[in-house]
Design goal:
Layout (H helix, E strand, L loop, with lengths): L6 E6 L7 H11 L5 E6 L5 H7 L5 E6 L7 H4 L2 E2 L1 H6 L4 E4 L5 E4 L2 H12 L10 E4 L3 H13 L4 E4 L3 H11 L3 E4 L13 E4 L23 E4 L8 H8 L3 E3 L2 H7 L1 H8 L7 H8 L1
Parallel strand pairs: 1-2, 1-3, 4-6, 7-8, 7-10, 8-9, 10-11, 11-12
Antiparallel strand pairs: 3-5, 5-6
Helix pairs in contact: 5-6, 5-9
The structure holds NADP nicotinamide-adenine-dinucleotide phosphate.
């Protein structure tokens, strides 16, 4: 019997805005793989039933996005250490033995983007300054600590959220008050905006950047617009800047490889396909 083409998709609510179908669709076409990647609109009430049904319908895996990244942990049969530590999953693999395996590749995507966009980046060269302590910051803090950053200076408008991350992830994190956030940039050789500030439709990030070191590598995980004011200012001060689109593209690599059997490339053609 001929095997049907493998299916994968992204589960979320809403789902129309997701760029994942463009990313995976580009790779499937580019590598001539017989397969499909679909957007799947799924409500909270239906999440478990849908996830359990997908393998029976020919799905080999799925991405999970807002608002299901945390609740998926309760549904999966096996979790990676990273998914447990971050407290969220974004990539599911439906194994042949029927088990659902959940991973989180956001931190991988973040680091791979920095390495591609700033090949000279050395995480051990000095402290990292992280602005924001929301969902995305969790994965980034874990990834930076894993990459060997000696200290993480963390600042968030709602300070207790930053304190909670410090309590959870350890003493290598030092919390800085939001009104003092500009000061923490002076020592940092890696600077990350993980807040939603600067995104189209949101207020600008108002943290004073005059303390930035020109040798710092600065990245913004906001990718709409691609060149945020934060990145433009950092670049004008001589810093190496890396936009946030690459994080989204790189986090998709491990899932595609597991589902479709080929490690795809993140390159300009992919960026154009996703932005177009
Ligand atoms: P989230 O959990 O809602 O966290 C939002 C963060 O932004 C919090 O730290 C919040 O501070 C801060 N913030 C929001 N409005 C603010 C304001 N007016 N002043 C100061 N701080 C403010 O969201 P998330 O999931 O972490 O996502 C954050 C951003 O990253 C979004 O724009 C998202 O699209 C983007 N993102 C990009 C990627 C990628 O692959 N490039 C991946 C994930 C997310 P409080 O705690 O004080 O509210």
């Amino acid at each position: 019997m001929i095997k049907p083409p493998p299916l994968a998709g992204v589960i979320g609510n809403p789902i129309g805005h997701s760029k994942s179908p463009k990313v995976h669709g580009h790779w499937l076409r580019r590598y001539g793989i017989r397969g499909q990647y679909l957007p799947l609109h799924v409500t909270d009430q239906d999440l478990e039933q849908v996830i359990r049904a997908l393998p029976k319908m020919g799905f080999v895996g799925a991405n999970v996005t807002i608002p299901h990244k945390t609740s998926t942990l309760q549904i999966a049969d096996q979790l990676t250490d990273r998914a447990i530590l971050i407290g969220a999953a974004n990539t599911l693999i439906f194994r042949e033995d029927g088990k659902i395996y959940a991973d989180n590749t956001d931190g991988y995507g973040f680091i791979a983007n920095l390495k591609q966009g700033a090949p000279h980046w050395n995480p051990k060269s000095g402290p990292a300054a992280v602005l924001g302590a929301g969902g995305a910051a969790r994965a980034i803090i874990v990834a930076l600590a894993d990459a060997g950053v000696p200290e993480i200076l963390l600042s968030n408008r709602t300070r207790p959220k930053a304190e909670a991350l410090r309590a959870e992830f350890g003493t290598r994190i030092n919390v800085v008050d939001w009104v003092q956030a500009g000061n923490m940039l002076e020592d940092a050789t890696t600077v990350v905006n993980t807040t939603s500030l600067g995104m189209t439709g949101q207020p600008e990030l108002r943290v004073p950047l005059d303390g930035l070191r020109p040798d710092a590598v600065v990245t913004d995980i906001v990718y709409s617009p691609l060149r945020t004011q934060f990145l433009a200012q950092a670049e004008a001060m001589g810093c190496t800047v890396v936009d946030g689109l690459g994080m989204l593209l790189h986090q998709a690599v491990p899932g595609f490889e597991r589902w479709f059997g080929l490690r795809p490339e993140v390159d300009d053609a992919l960026r154009k396909a996703v932005l177009g």
